Amino acid sequence: MPTSPLDLLKIDHLLTDDEQDIAATVRDWVDDRVRPNIADWYERGEIDLGLIKEAGALGLLGMHLTGYGCAGTNAVSYGLACLELEAGDSGLRSLVSVQGSLAMFAIWKFGSEDQKQRWLPAMAAGEAIGCFGLTEPDFGSNPAGMRTVARRDGDGWVLNGTKMWITNGSVADVAVVWAQTDPDESQSSRPGAGVRGFVVPTNAPGFSAPKITRKLSLRASVTSELVLQDVRLPADAVLPEVTGLRGPLSCLDEARFGIVFGALGAARDCLDTAIRYAAEREVFDRPLAGFQLTQAKLADMALELQKGFLLALHLGRLKDDHQLDPRQVSLGKLNNVREALTIARTCRTILGANGITGEYPIMRHANNLESVLTYEGTSEVHQLVIGQALTGENAFG
């Protein structure tokens, strides 16, 4: 009797009953609502935005946060949910991750009580969609160089600038936008020391979010540019509890943690597909699964998937114990996304020409993982983070 890849190590034994129940609930929802439709959504370059309210009803939005209508689950449960979501599609996990770990987390962690009460309950329910504006056309890995600026204007602020590659941007109700403030706003000369976060309603005059089209990856995800032209905001639009790059970077750590688990979902779906296909496909009058080279590929991929899961689970337990270091998240994202992409590509070879069609999920996952590999910290950036931890030398720049 064949054994599924994650059952070889009896990994479920490492999870609590509640964690397994959450994973099963999300898996069932993905099977029911996403799998029958995702190939068409991906081909058309769209996603059913009704999923956001359904995700809210399931408690998935900001699920690892407490209060304000959030579920307050542990970090491992959130990670498992990300895994199941990305087994459906990376775009779906991105939708949930940006909502909860970037936009909601920023307000929850650094916002005023008024900002939290205004936005978090609606975002947790999926009644309001959020986005996170940090990356710019010329500044991705070096956010300290951002050109978006916020200047004082009487009691308020005026924002000008452009953000790029913003998930949910053109469908969002609220944007958390990071900008350089006036020089006298910061007493430090460190790059990025004057960066502040702003809670920007997307109906504010001067705010626009053109949708980015012609993507070959993450097609079932809304990706946009944010354009801010003299966007006037009241004084209380600023996130009061943080100044400097520590704010946006800590939000990215939250989202990267979800990716550590999420990428494994895409890999698992590819591997499950390849195993089923190899059992059914006959080559030279034998099942493809009966050939040594096929089994060698499957064994190597199953091993990497299990190792990646154990790494993710370890990081999740550290996070739940409040001991997780951002450098450890870099280890997780670097390894798990890289290995997930390798698994997707190898599974494609098992399916041969069928692997490139939309009838199977493998090429879709592989294309998506190309984006996951570079967003929220490229592999090279994470290598430098780890290298600095090992040597004490800063090799950035």
From TrEMBL:
Annotated ranges, domain Acyl-CoA oxidase/dehydrogenase middle: 131-231
Task: Tell me where in this chain the Acyl-CoA dehydrogenase/oxidase N-terminal domain is found.
Answer: 16-127
* Record-annotated Acyl-CoA dehydrogenase/oxidase C-terminal domain positions: 244-390
Gene Ontology MF, one = flavin adenine dinucleotide binding
Q: What is the originating organism of this protein?
A: Microlunatus endophyticus
According to UniProt, the name of this protein is: Glutaryl-CoA dehydrogenase
Question: Per the entry, which co-factors are needed?
Answer: FAD
Superkingdom of the source species: Bacteria
Lineage summary: Bacteria, Bacillati, Actinomycetota, Actinomycetes, Propionibacteriales
Matching InterPro entries: Acyl-CoA_Oxase/DH_mid-dom, Acyl-CoA_Oxase/DH_mid-dom_sf, AcylCo_DH-like_C, AcylCo_DH/oxidase_C, AcylCoA_DH/ox_N, AcylCoA_DH/ox_N_sf, AcylCoA_DH/oxidase_NM_dom_sf, Glutaryl-CoA_DH_mitochondrial
